[in-house]
Amino acid sequence: MPPNPTGPTNSQLRMLARFLRKAARANSASIWRVVAEFVEKPRRQRVIVNVGKLNRVAKEGDVVVVPGKLLAGGQLNKKIIVAAVKISPKAARKVIEAGGEVLTIPELVRKYPRGSGVRIVI
Fold first, then answer.
1. Which of 12, 13, 87, 98 places its Cα 20 to 30 Å from the Cα of 5?
2. Its pTM surpasses 0.85
3. Are 8 and 14 in contact (CB under 8 A)?
4. Is CATH 3.100.10.10 what the domain over 11-120 is classified as, yes or no?
């Protein structure tokens, strides 16, 4: 291992990135490759999104992937499907209370293998 690793040393994140790259190749869906690139970033550059931002950028019924952590800041009043690397319990509760659905990223890839209609929020 190099003296200063610049990617994830977390084995689960590395496996997730590998899974996303394989899904991108198998399904000819470049969205999963882009998500893998975000997942592989160093810790200081990882994505953190609040629920309030989802409320601003997503439309009713959207499918959204957050290639990082989803936190509970703000309000959500739209029914959306959200997948993220990590989701705080309060954020998950807010999404579910708004009528949405919370998935893991692998579940989202299996549900939408081509990535059609999936939006990346960073």
1. 87
2. yes
3. yes
4. yes
